[in-house]
Amino acid sequence: FGSSAQISYENMIALVNLAESFLNWGRKTFFPSIELPSDVPPAAKIAPLIRGALARMGEATVENYRRVVLEHRSGEDVLNFVNGQDLKRYAQAGIVTPDHAIRTKGWPLILPPAMNAKAISNAVRNYAEDYAAYYLRHARSDTTLLDPLPKVILMPGVGLFAAGRTAGEASVVADIAERAIAIIGAAESYGQFESISEEELFAIEYWSLEQAKIQTTQDPPLAGHVAVISGGAGAIGAATAQAFFDEGAAIVLLDLNVGLAEEIAAGMGGLGLACDITDAASVNATFDTICRSFGGVDIVVSNAGAAWQGKIGEVDDVVLRQSFELNFFGHQNLAKAAVAIMTRQRTGGSLLFNASKQAVNPGPDFG
User: Fold this and answer.
1) Is 120 exposed, middle or buried (CB count within 10 Å of its CB: 0-12, 13-18, 19+)?
2) Model's pTM, two decimal places?
């Protein structure tokens, strides 16, 4: 203002408030929360149900399931967003950028908290039907219906799940979805988020130049599968993991030597986790981590084992019990945890047990 300008105290306050509004652009927005039920399931329990629902759509047999990998996000900003009372309005208001249209679709699937498997399957089916109707409203002769399943799933009290055919794709979808949350939150802090029209959304999503960004070659046979290998830091475990990775599976290596397991898994874009397979609690906690990271499990290679020497008439009971804990109960602990998850997914699965030649044809001192 010039030296002769006159401004009232009220006008000054109004200008300061206006400036503050602009300075606050992009800062965290607080969304008033719904009242969450006390029995909201943890992400590790809900992820296999979501993953199973996404795999089951339109498929006839276990062999033909088109599986996906999930990634879960539950940071403070994500939970603030998904717990909001007005979630359906601002989360389904539209896209933020063209990349959102082709990678996260025009709107997320919103699940109420504490849903069961049947309700989740119905919600996914309804989403697919709504997407097909959206396509028919705008379809042209040069367009073909894209995958109608949701890429982003929001659940109050639980967070955000992103789906992709690979772990890398799921991670990209999750990153973009989180960015949308930040941008929508910034808009809501200033006023109200608004996007483009549905017709414009369709034009972007089905534009060949946009779709060219994500077109890939044919999926490998095990795309969307999650393979867990115990004893993953050893030579046999690492080679087994590499074989599954080469066929397209997301890889999880379990081992007491977690540093080496992490190093080997990192080369495959996978997870290396510390796990004592003789301890059921350790196994269960590890599989919870797998479900939060990838959504579930489809293949378990129970490979960890060891050979304690001892003649049948002389071996100490302590040595024999150690052998049974690892070479029998260790396999059972893995199988039990995996089957519980596979049952929730309802898409079958594979349990593979690696046995030494010593188990069926022992030599001297291996009685």
Assistant:
1) buried
2) 0.87
